[in-house]
Amino acid sequence: MRILHLSASYYPDAGGAETYLQQVSERLARRGHEITVFVAHVPISSRFPADNHLKLATSEVINRVTVKRFEPEGHFLRWLKGFLRRRGSYRLLRMFMPLEQIDMLSGGPLNLRIIADALLYKADILTVINWSFSSIVYQGYLTKRLRNVPLVGIPLLHTEEEWSRSPLRGEMLAKCDVILAITDHEKRFIEARVPRYRGVHVVGAGVDPQSFSDRDGTQIRRRYGIGDAPVVGYVGRMQPTKGVVTLIEAMRSVWASDSRVRLLLAGRRFPRGTHQDREAVDFRCHGRLCHAVYRGVFRNRLSRGLDVSKARDWVADRIDAMRCGRWRRRSARRAQ
């Protein structure tokens, strides 16, 4: 079966969505499916100065998964941005679409080549993952309309953030044939925005137990000079919006009651010299060293306590099931 994923970024870019998509894609490829990922080339590092951009190939095969990267700003988007600088342009476009849709399209990433190549690919299943960039979802929706291909949404919503609560995303959720949620909370969040929709399934994220088979906390304590001190740990990107700065500020209260406590930060760092790097990592916290581990210690996310081989293979099972339309029949029976 030919499965096409649309995403803003993919491995080797670092992030939860990127890791999740990589795991699902490679597991489906090992089952014998033809897996292709179209990436709008919006790696996390593209938010840094130009000299820190990742230099990634436009097309490559990673562990039997074909990855094709597109420029995030195609000719149409450049034209649209230029048009919107003209007086009266917003007033004119609002005759045809709401303001939120205009902002979505002009904000990008948007490249009509993605849609054209997706149509030529003739996928059996189309998935769109990581809905923080709604324009990616919209391009998936247009592909579904033009090719009549089953659309699977994997939104990975941050339910407390404004972008997840956008009415436009609610409309896009309703266009999906199936939606895969990571948690029960996300499922309820989606169902509240699409009340009569019955195609939401909780699949979880999972952890890889093999990564913890040789765990040795003593070695980590010795490596970073922690000794027998209590440890507060953080796992994630060294990014202010992920809460790492808030955590460091909160450590002042912890140290007020126990000065022996050490803070251990584990995750991918921002490029050296950027504002984010200075803000999130280069600390001497209250005179107590904040240890930072940048190469994958504690790199796995714990979600719903599921074995990754069950959770991510469950996702693969559900995508497999789309081929023979079993989900549609089940959803129809539930609606009756």
What is the element layout, followed by pairings?
Blueprint: E1 2-7, H1 16-30, E2 34-39, E3 59-62, E4 65-69, H2 75-84, H3 89-93, H4 99-107, H5 112-121, E5 125-129, H6 134-147, E6 151-154, H7 167-175, E7 178-181, H8 184-193, E8 200-202, H9 217-223, E9 231-235, H10 244-257, E10 262-266, H11 275-280, E11 290-293, H12 308-322, H13 326-335
Parallel strand pairs: 1-2, 1-5, 2-4, 5-6, 6-7, 7-8, 9-10, 10-11
Antiparallel strand pairs: 3-4
Task: Explain the overall architecture.
The chain has 13 helices and eleven strands. It is globular and about 65 Å long. Strand 6 (151-154), helix 7 (167-175) and strand 7 form a beta-alpha-beta unit. Mean pLDDT is 78; it is low at 45-53, 281-289, 293-311 and 327-331. It has helices at residues 16-30, 75-84, 89-93, 99-107, 112-121, 134-147, 167-175, 184-193, 217-223, 244-257, 275-280, 308-322, 326-335; strands at residues 2-7, 34-39, 59-62, 65-69, 125-129, 151-154, 178-181, 200-202, 231-235, 262-266, 290-293. The chain has two domains: 2-73 and 108-207 and 304-335, Glycogen Phosphorylase B (Rossmann fold), CATH 3.40.50.2000; 210-293, no CATH class. Helix 5 (112-121) packs parallel to helix 6 (134-147) and helix 6 runs parallel beside helix 7. The protein has 336 residues and is an alpha/beta fold. An eight-stranded mixed sheet has the order 3-4-2-1-5-6-7-8, with helices on both faces. The longest helix has 15 residues, at 16-30.
